[in-house]
Amino acid sequence: MSPETLNELFEQTVSRLSEPTSLHGLCREHNDGDPLPSATALSEIIDLCRAIIFPGFYGKSNISSKTLPHHIGISLDRLCHLLTQQVLAGLCFQNDKAEPTCSLTEQAQAIVAEFIKRLPDMRSILATDIEATYNGDPAASSYSEIISCYPVVKAISGYRIAHELLLLGVPLIPRIITEIAHSETGIDIHPGAQIGHHFTIDHGTGVVIGATCIIGNHVKLYQGVTLGAKSFALDDNGHPIKGIPRHPILEDNVIVYSNATILGRITIGKGTVIGGNVWVTENTKPGEHIIQKRS
Asked: Phi, psi (5° rounding) for residue 191?
């Protein structure tokens, strides 16, 4: 192909790819001065949060009781700086009202201050998740092994970080954080899900937890479990209706074994045990055992 022909091909392709009709909903026009979210910065934020919550396991490994306040202080300072930038980027991304950046900056600073205040409580609930993982796995030799090796720690810590940011009104950023954890572990937890204490996932690969799930305390899932939605309800124009509860509720002390699929806004009663490879679309009674029937 001659250079002239190649240039003509480029011009035609650029023209077609730049047509507004082909870009509807697929292109974000950047406003000068507005920051954009950074996956690299958000990965560092996750690492900093984990280093603060699990010191010595993440971040600096040479930590003692004497140096701990120093290390946490340095990590908090860096976290505050980076997270403020990223929360601001999220707020700018969703700034349909053209609110001044200075106003959004103050909002971002207030959100980050509240997030930092919640870190001790975040550690407390994650400690219960570590305890549940240890108590639920005979192969686990120590809490240290779980924090160092088990994918559930990365998945659930990513979720709990993202969930708090979502509760604080941060757009976009929580979803990116849980997708980073999803890429790390193969466990997909939407930041909108509500998950109680002493939660654990054994093995974990392929677990999906939808946005409107409500999970109680002392719940255990195995690999391949899906807590999903059935077909979406449509409005009069044939568009999916957004914002309605469509995922399961799992009450306390529920166990769901590998590759089970639970769909729709149903309630899995307290103490229910759901066997592997089972399809559940109806409520269960407390203490019920749902298993495949023998043919």
From this structure: -65, -20
